[in-house]
Specification:
The structure holds 2 protein chains of 2 kinds. Chain A is an all-beta fold. Chain A is built from no helices and 11 strands. Chain A is globular, with a radius of gyration of 14 Å. By secondary structure, chain B is mainly beta. Classes of the chains: A mainly beta, B mainly beta. Chains A and B meet through strand 5, strand 9 and strand 10 of A and strand 4, strand 5, strand 9 and strand 10 of B.
Chain lengths: 111, 111
């Protein structure tokens, strides 16, 4: 089983749609979780951290389910500019902050 | 504020030639440092990470090596490049249990 698994997509959605991505992780001892966004041929950039209580940043909502070992990202009112690959990131706790990336979920928002 | 510099941005090298990619971080001390590789259309693969000077952990057997001669300097090297070494190489830093920040990446093509 991969350490971090994501549906590769692509998710093709119209502008204004709500879309949700899930990500599962294998290490129950992981302590930190993040969503990154990566545009084509660019470096990944932090979208948001994921907190145990869930957190929201504008149109983006992240949730953590420790019991089922998954995190989710919800995007409301999709914009064309949201088109990108979304990477799920989990730290592999072991006394150090080794960050493991999922392969990413591709989102394409169309007019 | 912290910044991370990675160079060169693009590189075309013949098979069998050596490689040296350099990454430096400014504005922080004792960062965790990472080298990732991303093949075309794929996710990020962790190659090396370092929690301190001279401390390098290798994640996958490969044709590459890494060194950390100074606290904020991380170097990726190869003595003889293979075609399969082509990819997008990303350096990143983090503090303990925080998100990672990426350099702009080096797109390496081995011909």
């Amino acid at each position: 089983r991969k350490e971090v698994e994501q549906d590769p997509g692509p998710f093709n959605v119209p502008e204004g749609a709500t879309v949700a991505f899930n990500c599962t992780y294998s290490n129950s001892a992981s302590q930190s979780f993040f969503w990154y966004r990566q545009d084509c041929r660019k470096e990944p950039k932090l979208l948001m951290s994921v907190y145990s209580s869930g957190n929201e940043d504008g149109r983006f909502t992240a949730q953590l389910n420790r019991a089922s070992q998954y995190i989710s990202l919800l995007i409301r009112d999709s914009k064309l500019s949201d088109s990108a690959t979304y990477l799920c990131v989990v730290n592999d706790s072991g006394g150090y902050n080794k960050l493991i990336f999922g392969a990413g979920t591709r989102l394409a928002v169309h007019p | 504020s912290q910044t991370i510099h990675q160079w060169p941005a693009t590189l075309v090298q013949p098979v069998g030639s050596p490689l040296s990619l350099e990454c430096t971080v400014e504005g922080t001390s004792n960062p965790n440092l990472y080298w990732y590789r991303q093949a075309a259309g794929r996710g990020l693969q962790l190659l090396f990470y370092s929690v301190g000077i001279g401390q390098i952990s290798s994640e996958v057997p490969q044709n590459l090596s890494a060194s950390r001669p100074q606290d904020r300097q991380f170097i990726l090297s190869s003595k003889k490049l293979l075609l399969s070494d082509s990819g997008f190489y990303l350096c990143a830093w983090s503090s303990d249990l925080t998100e990672a920040f990426f350099g702009q990446g080096t797109r390496l093509t081995v011909v």
